[in-house]
Amino acid sequence: AESWLFAPNEAEQKSLAARLGRLALDDAAFIPLGQFRIRTAFRRNITGILPGSSPYPWNVRRA
User: Fold this and answer.
1) Is the pLDDT of residue 10 over 90?
2) Angle CA 22–26–19, to nearest 5
3) CB-based contacts of 16, cutoff 8 Å, min separation 6
């Protein structure tokens, strides 16, 4: 990173910036920090619950 800051000309800066971008994508593009699940419960007289990552409010009816 320091070599990019002190590069003597713009062409050298562009070359070093491209290299830094490749290194960043190769090393640390995504770091998973954890996961969670939403626990939900519904009454027995409710039907039409759609499975998914969020409780969807449509298609729900009383039985």
Assistant:
1) yes
2) 20
3) 3, 4, 7
